[in-house]
Design goal:
- The structure holds two protein chains of two kinds.
- By secondary structure, chain A is of the alpha/beta class.
- Chain A folds into two domains: about 90 residues, Roll (Ubiquitin-like (UB roll)); about 350 residues, Rossmann fold (3-Layer(aba) Sandwich), CATH 3.40.50.
- Helices cover about 35% and strands about 15% of the residues of chain A.
- In chain A, helix 15 links the parallel strand 16 and strand 17.
- Chain A starts with a strand and ends in an 18-residue tail after the last helix.
- In chain B, strands 2-1-3-4 form a four-stranded mixed β-sheet, with helices on one face.
- In chain B, helix 1 packs antiparallel against helix 2.
- Chain B starts with 17 loop residues before the first helix and ends with a helix.
- Classes of the chains: A alpha/beta, B alpha+beta.
């Protein structure tokens, strides 16, 4: 690769051709402030906060989109540059609500950070201010365009990474707003509620619907028995809410923290992840043996479910009928556990700690009441749990390590890896192999399905049958696989799809920031969790075995069918008269 | 392609009779598969239908395989595109330099007040639409508006109600 020599602030640097001035400066340790720029997602030079002076150029150049050139002389902090950046930011701030103290992103806001970095001490412009009401039309996300700085990161991630296109830049000039088509509420368009927009938003313009107060109220209610489940991916991310390194494994502290908050039982979604493998594994075997619809798609990821319902309804028969681990947990908490503990199901309140905003939608789906009550009452994202623990003044990093409660807290390593892309596939193959062949699997680490490659493939030979599997994460990658399936060009038996890039460890409810490097570290942590477990195959989970013996009977049995399986709803992609795309 | 029914279309007063629908589908067919053709397609769709209501945008989006949010993003960006049909009396107000300095903004303000709409919009009864245009080539007569083919020159805000009333009378026949 050809390289280019230039100077930035009189320091010489040599970088690959095509590198931007921004990246070249990073190499020298010079941090040019940015606002709309987001590595791998958005580089459009829109906000003008990263402008620099280039010798010979008439105007200031946006460093995030200006490629380096041989002999270029760049100056990143001349008075002209500093003044231009500050003026630009003041203009942005002149149409910003300045509600920092009460904002959900207080102290985790890039607009605050850049204002501080540029030394803005006053806003000298008083102009027109835009009027936008918050959009609270979905159970998962709240849009607040009044706080939007029009960076377009959410548009980019929704379009380029997820291929959903729920929001777009609308109108022009001062009227410009990021919103769904026709300014419809988010709940009325084909949005999958994955929350990747919230993850990349530099401000509080789009964020999770906060349910912390609902959970506080339940905990304070003496008539309620409040149980909590924690998703696999949260144990390697919630530490980041308290300044721990990305990828810190905090399982034991998480359990301790939840007990301190007052939950009556601290259970684990990993238990029902193991159960999912039992049900889904048997469903796959049944489909293969009985000539059912193939390839079968996994069904754990509620953003993915909503996506296929909107965009590929003709492929719904391919979707496993298994509920997600979250919903299996809810259904069992208010039946099996209620019975065992001698508590009335209506007194049980189920809270989930999830890396996911779409889980809030999933829990609210009207069919998710197999127990006769709403199975999962409240869903808190990793960020909300972080806030709740801070409200309670819990010193997370100094908590002791504690264990989950039995029986719904017992799990295997196969369940933990649900949190990373490829994990469900790996867990399913570990179990399918042993169930079908009756022999132990030699190496249980199926590394072909691990990692951040967009689409991964693997095949396992089971008693003469070569089972072909594929894995996609991020809906843009999912589309590629689905198009092949729809065209009849794919010969896979089993496809795992996770809505968010990296899988749940990169979910829309995770700590901010979440970028590729952080995703990688959380993935490594997830496989560490797996390695450290004594049991690493779902079918070896003793609590799951007991559950089948005492309550469910057998996988795909009558009771499983009632409690653990579901159906799907075709939804349109455009707003229809009858109100569509909810 | 699925049927384009939507919130403001179809059962009650669709903008599309069969002839228009066929012409619209021909436009869509012409541009299907060619990337970057959205603006051209919308332009021709507007020529065929007269404007671009939601149902037309939905049909274009589905027909071309372009996200609806992108279609609406383009429609709402360009002044050329309109989501409402033009009025029976199409008012164009010149905001070119000469008219501007001769008081066009005041005339516009009065027109907006009298009609109860802002520039780019059409009154609910479909009688008047109001657009701001650049130089009409009658700088000596500014401020100038045209209403359909009629030119109204040296217009003062106070004369606006009378001018509009004349058209209302004409409309009543």
């Amino acid at each position: 690769m050809a390289t280019v020599k230039l100077t930035i602030d009189r320091q010489p640097v040599e970088v690959e051709q095509g590198t931007t001035v921004l990246r070249a400066a990073e190499k020298l340790g010079i941090r040019i402030p940015t606002l709309c720029y987001l590595k791998d997602i958005n580089a459009i030079g829109a906000c003008r906060v990263c402008v620099v002076e280039v010798k010979g150029a008439r105007t200031l150049q946006a460093a995030c989109v200006t490629p380096v050139a041989e002999g270029m002389e760049v100056f990143t902090s001349t008075p002209r540059v500093l003044q231009a950046r500050r003026h630009t930011l003041e203009l942005i701030l002149s149409d910003h609500p300045m509600e920092c103290l009460t904002c959900i992103r207080n102290q985790n806001c890039e607009l605050q950070e850049v204002s501080e970095a540029l030394g803005v001490r006053e806003v000298r412009y008083q102009g027109k201010t835009s009027r936008h009401e918050p959009d609270r039309s979905t159970p998962s996300l709240v849009r607040n365009p009044a706080k939007c700085v029009l960076c377009r990161r959410c548009v980019a991630v929704c379009q380029k990474v997820q291929g959903v296109n729920a929001v777009q830049t609308l109108e022009r000039g001062f009227d410009t707003v990021v919103a769904p088509a026709f300014h419809l509420p988010l709940g009325e368009v084909a949005c999958v509620l994955c929350g990747q927009c919230a993850l990349v938003c530099p401000t509080g313009a789009i964020h999770e619907r906060d349910q912390v107060d609902e959970v506080w109220a339940a905990l304070a209610d003496p008539g309620k028995h409040v149980v909590v489940q924690t998703a696999p991916a949260t144990r390697v991310s919630v530490g980041e809410e308290f300044g721990l390194e990305p990828g810190s494994i905090v399982t034991g502290k998480l359990v301790a923290a939840l007990r301190r908050l007052g939950f009556d039982r601290v259970f684990d979604t990993d238990f029902t992840a193991d159960l999912t493998i039992m049900e889904e594994g048997h469903e796959l075997i049944k489909r293969v043996k009985e000539g059912g619809v193939l390839p079968m798609f996994t069904s754990c990821s509620p953003g993915w479910i909503k996506f296929i319902e909107h965009f590929y309804p003709s492929l719904l028969p391919n979707l496993s009928t298994c509920k997600s681990p979250q919903q299996m947990f809810g259904a069992l908490a208010k039946t099996y556990y209620a019975e065992k503990a001698g508590i009335l199901p209506e007194q049980i309140y189920v809270v989930s700690i999830m890396p996911c905003t779409a889980k809030k939608f999933e829990a609210a789906r009207p069919e998710m009441n197999a127990s006769g009550h709403r199975d999962v009452d409240a869903v808190l994202t990793t960020r909300e749990l972080g806030r709740m623990l801070r409200e309670a003044g819990i010193d997370f990093s100094h908590l002791p390590e504690e264990d989950y409660d039995a029986p719904l807290g017992i799990s295997t390593g196969a369940a933990a890896i649900f949190g990373a892309t490829g994990g469900v596939m790996e867990a399913a193959l570990r179990t399918a192999y042993e169930v079908i062949t009756g022999n132990p699997l030699g190496d249980i680490n199926i590394t072909a399905v691990r990692g951040l490659e967009g689409i991964k493939e693997a095949s396992v030979t089971l008693d003469g049958l070569t089972l072909k599997a594929a894995v996609a994460h991020g809906l843009g990658n999912a589309r590629k696989l689905l198009d092949l399936v729809a065209q009849g060009k794919a010969d896979y038996h089993f496809i795992e799809i996770m809505c968010c890039p990296g899988g749940c460890i990169g979910g829309g409810g995770q700590s901010i920031p979440t970028d590729t490097a952080i995703r990688q570290r959380r993935i490594e942590a997830i496989y560490d969790v797996d390695e450290r477990m004594v049991l690493r195959k779902s079918h070896e989970n003793p609590a799951v075995q007991t559950l089948y013996r005492e309550f469910l009977g057998e996988p795909l049995g009558h009771r499983s069918h009632e409690l653990l399986h579901t159906h799907y709803i075709p939804r349109g992609t455009v707003p229809r008269k009858e109100g569509v795309a909810k | 392609m699925s049927q384009a029914t939507c919130c403001k279309g179809s059962a009650h007063g669709t903008a599309l009779d069969e002839a228009k629908l066929a012409a619209l589908d021909a436009v869509i067919a012409k541009y299907r598969g060619s990337p970057g053709a959205l603006i051209s397609a919308l332009h021709e769709a507007q020529e065929v239908v007269g404007y671009l209501p939601q149902e037309v945008q939905v049909r274009v989006a589905e027909g071309l395989g372009v996200p609806l949010s992108e279609v609406y993003g383009v429609v709402s960006f360009y002044a050329l595109f309109s989501m409402k049909p033009k009025g029976r009396f199409k008012i164009s107000l010149c905001k070119g330099t000469a008219c501007y300095v001769r008081g066009a903004p005041h005339v516009l303000e009065r027109l907006e007040k009298e009609l109860g709409i802002t520039a780019g919009d059409t009154t609910d009864d479909g009688m008047f639409s109001l657009d701001v245009v650049r130089c009409l080539g009658a700088c000596g007569l500014g401020p100038v508006i045209t209403i359909n083919e009629d030119v109204h020159a040296r217009l003062k805000p106070d004369r606006v109600p009378g001018v509009l009333e004349a058209y209302r009378r004409a409309d009543r026949g």
